[in-house]
Amino acid sequence: MHATLTTTYTDTRADDLGWCLGLPPLPALAERAVELGGLKLELRLLGASHQMLIGPGRGEGEPVSETVACVPGAATPLPARAATRLGRWEYEFTALTQRLEDTAFVARVREIVTLASGHEYGLVGDYPGLPHAITAMVVERCGAGAVWSTWHTYPQECRIVSTRSRAM
Questions:
Q1: What distance in Å separates the CA atoms of residue 161 and residue 142, rounded to the nearest whole number?
Q2: CA 18 – CA 75 distance, rounded (Å)
Q3: What are the tens digits of pLDDT across the range 106-126?
Q4: Beta carbons of 5 and 49 less than 8 angstroms apart
């Protein structure tokens, strides 16, 4: 699913992104609910960031949330790796920030847009007024849980922040 986000691009930097678990649902510019074999997930684009919600199973309480965003005071700096237990889930997170040359950056952004917009369980949002500024997410079932990848692009820096998460 491809959405043009109804906001102007805020001049943030890749280094401004933080990581937070357990935040309540934040206001979304675009969202997509998916169900994978009984597992309910919500992909949410929040400006230059994302939030993934994993709905609770029967009798399991609150949903689990992962937020990668500029949330002053609520987020820790983006870790390269993290692992923890979230309710019944074993959760793993990885992040990588890359700086590319101009043409390689544009080509990679196009690849990400094609992947996410063509993916059965994907969501990509672009920002009006700034070419190649996107946030994209894809999710897939993995055993009893899910695995998802996200991309946040920063054209002014030619940087891409990629994350991969797993809840099993």
A1: 23
A2: 5
A3: 999 999 999 999 999 999 998
A4: no
